[in-house]
Amino acid sequence: MVSSKDVAKYAGVSQTTVSRVLNTPNLVKPKTVQKVLKAIDELHYIPNSQARSLVQNKTNTIALISGPLHNPFFVDSTSNIVQYANQKGYNVDVQFVSDETLDEAYTNFLKRKVDGVILSCILIDDPFMEKLKKIGIPFITFNRKHRDNELFVEIDNEQASFLATTYLQKLNHKEIIYVGGPLSVSTFYNRFEGFKKALTITDKNLIYHSDTTPKDVRKGIDILLKRNPRVTGIVAATDSIALIILDYLLELGIQVPKEISIIGIDNVEQAKHQSIQLTTVGDAHGENLGLLAIKKLIALIEGETNVQTEVTKSVCIYERKTTMRC
Fold it and tell me: Fewest C-beta atoms under 10 Å: which of 87, 140, 161, 254?
């Protein structure tokens, strides 16, 4: 078993420095902190006291590592997770992160004493998956999944995007563009595959992979509309992206759906608002993925057997007012 002494030797620092990095990193030089964290990561080191706290002495606390709040999907899922967990007697320790801050979030998590972990920010090839398995703590991912294809709850993302694209085609849209997110994430990767499958093309002039922030989504729309001035349909990889696009097109004086139709994916609560009425694709039974995932996590924590933890939900179109026949 790896010890703090091993970490100190590997990083070329003292054991005292390793302890300070773990407990009071603000008092250590940033360069040294990075050196120690790299050693911890590469040696898969978990301090004994932290490891014990993760697998013993129930705390009735669950860690939620969620995506950013500018995406209403994470607002909806967090609300459902916290409400259900509280009903079952659990507190939820929430961290909202972006893909760029995942390592920091993971490091913070390893310092905490919790009974289980639910996360929506795992990357396809995320090494943190293996760490979670080694710790032995119950966990589940939702909306995204790891390449290992286990311990997840998702919708059929490829089919969702395929349905969205073919829906616009059935409405006689021939000039269709796609705005997605990072392909290092299973959700965006598979939704992009569905779009390509529907159009059987890989024309880069029709595609923009954003970082999902409002600024970058708007940038993508500027690029794609300049390349394709005759666009009549937009497939947005998430409702969050679709809502940003809807707002921007209206700002530009472009009428939706009269001039351009927009369809999203996720069926978030905001999409149903009477002033928005976003056409979208979502879970065929209208279930919230966060709620479904937290139910399964708590079942695992409480020792239930035969819990299904590889779940891909079927999808359907929710036709509203941001699409029309071309």
Answer: 87
Q: Judge whether 79 and 87 are in contact, CB under 8 Å.
A: no
Residues contacting residue 247 through CB under 8 Å, at least 6 positions apart: none
**CA 8 to chain CA centroid, nearest Å:** 34
Q: Which conformational region is residue 129 in: left (phi greater than 0), alpha (psi within -120 to 50 degrees), or beta?
A: alpha
Alpha-carbon distance of 58 to 321, in angstroms, equals: 48
pLDDT tens-digit map of 196-250? 999 887 677 799 999 999 999 999 999 999 999 999 999 999 999 999 999 999 9
CATH number, span 157-283 = 3.40.50.2300
Q: Grade residue 47 by pLDDT with cuts at 50, 70 and 90.
A: low
Q: What is the CATH number of domain 1-45?
A: 1.10.260.40
- Smallest CA-to-CA distance from 51 within 126, 142, 125, 134 is with 134
Confidence of residue 31 (pLDDT cuts 50, 70, 90): confident
Up-side HSE of residue 33: CA atoms within 13 Å toward CB?
13
Mean pLDDT of the chain: 90
In angstroms, the CA 292 to CA 307 distance is 12
